[in-house]
Design brief:
Helix content is 35%, strand content 17%. By secondary structure, it is an alpha/beta fold.
């Protein structure tokens, strides 16, 4: 108890927080989905604050490019699983709480069982398919969802599915009813992000979690906070719940588990084969196969395997030049190659087999890092 008194002394000293607030934190169960740029600060501050039970879900491995903003990790950790490294680092930060790791990709098949074990869910992901999946599960399970997102120099924070002040709760679909097209969305790998931005947005998310648990202050219930770090402009707007979005959400658990969120978000397409890095390496040199880089000339990293380059912007003009039966496409993140696959599917139909590297060169480079460690 003496250690507890010293560890949380600054919380105990807060007149409206004290032992009662700390006790609430100790008894709380929070799931953080994503242990990257947003997840790192969220996890560090919730663990330090003494949230009693924390889950970490992430299937990704650490790459060198992560270190510019993902402060839980170091150079020696490159190639290792994020959740495994995060667990070891966070356990050293606070040995008095329980941490559970889920080193898996969250899908509609496994999300229900994981999310149902926690009281508050924190979305620290970076893709629309997972965001919609998390949102719909939280709506069906009636779990508060603390949302965060970043883009270049700007970030967003909101709290969904809480219903403290409105006639009915607001969820992520009230903000974005339907997913955008993949080609209209760029992520950190493509446009970059200033390293300190996810730290600032992640701390805001952690702050909302602590307020939810302790009852302190006003949380962003049904509100979207937008923060621009170049000029420190902050806007907070109410999210309307007037338009019904219930019909966009699966009716029950069975319908949820049958939903293909990647297909709904355009990340996968029927009749187009998604290749893992291992499958890509096996198949790109097969007989009667052509591998096409649809990135623009000069994009890095360079591909060190046999391929030709036809940028997506030029693909329509060169369709007649593609003669082989199996076409494998790749780009930086998998978005442009998927768009290229759509173009080829429309032109060739079922005459040719069309595949693309899911995750693009980013996934391929990550595989190399794993093998080197």
């Amino acid at each position: 108890m003496e250690n507890d008194n010293e560890r949380y002394a600054r919380h105990y000293a807060l007149s409206d927080f004290g032992f009662e607030g700390q006790h609430k934190l100790l008894n709380a169960k929070v799931l953080v989905i994503g242990a990257g740029g947003l997840g790192c600060p969220v996890l560090q501050y919730l663990v330090a604050a003494g949230v009693g039970t924390i889950g970490i879900a992430d299937h990704d491995h650490i790459s060198l490019s992560n270190l510019q903003r993902q402060t839980l990790y170091s150079t020696d950790d490159v190639g290792k699983k994020k959740v495994e490294v995060a667990f070891l680092k966070l356990e050293q930060l606070n040995t008095e709480i329980n941490i559970t790791t889920y080193p898996i990709e969250l899908t509609s098949k496994n999300a229900w069982n994981i999310i149902s074990e926690y009281e508050i869910i924190v979305d620290c992901t970076d893709n629309f398919a997972t965001r919609y999946l998390i949102n719909d599960a939280c709506v069906l399970l009636n779990k508060p969802l603390v949302f965060g997102a970043i883009y270049k120099y700007e970030g967003q924070v909101a709290v969904f599915n809480l219903n403290l002040k409105k006639s009915k709760p607001v969820n992520y679909r009230n903000l974005f009813p339907n997913p955008p097209k993949p080609e209209d969305v760029q992520n950190c790998n493509e446009v970059g992000v200033l390293g300190v931005l996810p730290g600032m947005i992640g701390m805001m998310q952690a702050n909302e979690v602590i307020k939810l648990i302790t009852g302190l202050g006003d949380v962003l219930d049904g509100k979207l906070l937008t923060f621009n770090m170049l000029n420190y402009e902050i806007f907070t707007v109410d999210i309307s719940n007037e338009d019904s979005v219930e019909n966009l959400i699966p009716e029950n658990r069975e319908a949820f588990e049958l939903t293909d969120y990647e297909f709904l978000c355009g990340i996968s397409i029927k009749n187009i084969e998604d290749l893992s890095p291992d499958d890509f390496i096996k198949k790109n040199s097969a007989e009667n196969t052509i591998t096409i880089d649809v990135r623009e000339v000069g994009e890095l990293p360079k591909a060190d395997f046999e391929h030709i380059q036809i940028p997506l912007s030029e693909l329509n003009d060169k369709l007649t030049e593609i003669k082989r039966e199996h076409i494998i496409l790749f780009c930086q993140s998998g978005k442009r190659s998927l768009k290229a696959a759509e173009i080829l599917m429309e032109y060739f139909g079922t005459q040719k087999k069309i595949s693309h590297l899911k995750g693009g060169m980013t996934a391929l480079e990550q595989r190399k890092n794993e093998q080197n460690n």
